[in-house]
Design a protein that fits this description.
Two copies of one chain form a homodimer. The first copy, chain A, is mostly helical and 169 residues long. Chain A has eight helices and five strands. In chain A, a hairpin with a 2-residue loop joins strand 4 (126-127) and strand 5. Chain A binds a DNA duplex (28 and 28 nucleotides) through residues 12-14, 28, 31-38, 40-41, 56-61.
Chain lengths: 169, 169
DNA sequence: ACTAACATGTAATCTGTTACATGATTGA
DNA sequence: TCAATCATGTAACAGATTACATGTTAGT
């Protein structure tokens, strides 16, 4: 997220935190204690440079992405896998910055990985390795989980197919 | 999750991990290094007791929920808030065990908190504190985020309203 | 004068991740 | 006999959370 937002333009930490909280805060609030150490790690790795602005009385550290930082971002987007693809919240973060990947074919490759996950038979509950279907579950809230998951999945599959230019089967 | 699964019956760690991975593994894989220390913390807090089974050659520790553990689970479900309500993945875990709450009115109160969140105007991107609508966003993938989010939200609102016995507005 | 928002950090503690470490059982 | 699965843990390291710590600016 830090690399993604900085790829759109230089920011200082406070603005960055606000944007990060808007994008992801519904899932997990970004606190000072996690943001500033994360920025320091990126500075240490050479992905970000910090310039202290003198224009204001209050010290204000403008953060700028280096060419290495941009390469790092591209690599992270290109190789998105695991939870970054299967968890909706984390995939949304990938989606928010996917346009930063210069090659459209690489963008589509990421979408295809998400599509593959969505199209695989899945449940939250299994019996002998086999995903349980709604009719096999007694609990109303667990039935609801499948109802909700199915609706979300259908909508997303339709959108991805359309984005990739694939006809609905 | 540990308290929830143990509320349905005693299990040993390995089975517990499998069930946890089925329910939540799409988002984050449960590893031994996080599960076993978590179990030890629950034993220390008195929520869980461990009985070593002698029936098998391989040592097998059956985990059982104590009455205090059950009270703990109920309290966690009853007071679910923040990310546990706003993050879909975490809310799903709440939903999976919500029937464990003895009072139906308390179950509904949790659903109402989720409904309130879903019905509030929200986006992933804001301008001057105001959520941006799809038409105001240029990036196709960010438009997709809103498309997906809206569809998922609509389906979930409909299901919760139906569960609560509220007519569609 | 006071409050909210702006602005940046550190310290102690807790938790998660990854790799290591061990051993039994079951089926090919 | 070999591999997969069952079964339980620890150790080193990385990262997150919470509280602490400080100071400015703009509006009422």
């Amino acid at each position: 997220m830090i690399l993604g937002f900085l790829a759109e333009g230089s920011l200082h930490g406070y603005e960055l935190r606000r944007k990060m909280n808007e994008l992801y805060g519904y899932a997990r609030e970004i606190s000072d204690g996690s943001l500033y150490p994360a920025i320091q790690r990126l500075i240490k790795s050479g992905a970000v440079v910090q310039r202290v602005e003198n224009g204001r009385a209050a010290k204000r550290h403008t953060l700028e992405l280096t060419p290495e930082g941009r390469t790092d971002l591209h690599q992270r987007l290109r190789t998105a896998s695991g939870g970054n693809v299967t968890d909706l919240g984390r995939f949304m973060v990938i989606l928010a910055f996917l346009s930063q990947l210069p090659d459209v074919e690489e963008q589509h490759e990421v979408l295809r990985r998400r599509l593959k996950f969505l199209e695989a038979p899945a449940s939250f509950f299994y019996e002998g390795g086999r995903p349980l279907r709604k009719a096999e579950i007694q609990d109303v809230y667990r039935q609801g989980m499948l109802t909700i998951g199915k609706a979300a999945s259908r909508a997303e599959i339709a959108w991805i197919r359309q984005s990739l230019g694939i006809a609905a089967p």
